[in-house]
Amino acid sequence: MELGRGQQTSGNEIMKRQHTMADRGDDLYETHPDAINAFLKHHGDQIPQTVWECCAGRGAITRCINATGRNVISTDLNAHEGADKGIETGRDFLMEYMPLADMIVTNPPYKLANQFIRHSLSLGCVFAGLMPLSYLSGANRHDILRHCKIVYAFIERLPMMHREGWDGPRNESSAIPFAWFVFDVDHRSDIIPVKRISCRDSSINQ
Q1: Where do the domains of the chain lie, and which CATH numbers do they carry?
Q2: 42, 128 in Cβ contact below 8 A?
Q3: pLDDT tens digits, residue range 29-47?
Q4: What is the tens place of the pLDDT at every residue in 83-106?
């Protein structure tokens, strides 16, 4: 449901809309190009020529990064119908023991976000992940957040990313605020800079 002016969404209403772990399955939510391009616009000068997309899904993030002239090594645990060519499936990121690139850019399964970031740091990779802004408030991930270099918080709600297989109502925008989090094992601080960005002006030339 798109909210009209003057309408608000309560915390209880948001919780009701969230899917259970069983319903979420593999947690495939295809990332909207505006969200990816906004990140590339603001962080593009720190993204290397080759990056790793370890939860490639059907290839949404890979396509946007490829459009900037960069190379993307795309892997995923599962094969998804309609996926772009070139995605290597059957690869469990949490079982990888060698980095495929110096930086990972992905939309991780949120239920496994802590494990994904910890594993990325153990591989020595910079990790850029699109996640709910509330990830900042987790009490059980201080060891992770002290490696967070910057958060790019969207000032508006992102276009809705519906879960694969979802056959319910199609909302135009998400009720949850999202942000890009960038982690680096060589960075340690209890101060995390937050930059507010927009997904509505995501044209890039990197």
Answers
A1: 24-197 (3.40.50.150)
A2: no
A3: 789 999 999 999 999 999 9
A4: 999 999 999 999 999 999 999 999
Q: What are phi and psi of 149, to 5 degrees?
A: -80, -40
Which residue in this structure is represented by tokens 């290397």? 48
Which residues are paired to 182 by β-bridges?
128, 150
Helix, strand, or coil here: 62? Answer: helix
Q: Which long-range contacts (CB under 8 A, 24 or more apart) does 194-198 make?
A: 194/150, 194/151, 194/152, 194/153, 195/42, 195/150, 195/151, 195/152, 195/153, 196/153, 196/154, 196/155, 197/38, 197/39, 197/41, 197/42, 197/152, 197/153, 197/154, 197/155, 198/38, 198/154, 198/155, 198/156
Structural contact between residues 131 and 176, judged by C-beta atoms closer than 8 angstroms: no
Whole-structure pTM value: 0.81
Going from the C-alpha of 23 to that of each of 28, 117, 131, 134, the distances in angstroms are 11, 23, 19, 21
Asked if pLDDT for residue 49 goes beyond 50, the answer is: yes
Which residues have CB under 8 Å from 179's CB, separation 6+?
130, 131, 132, 133, 135, 136, 151, 152, 153, 154, 194
Tokens 């599962």 map to which residue? 78
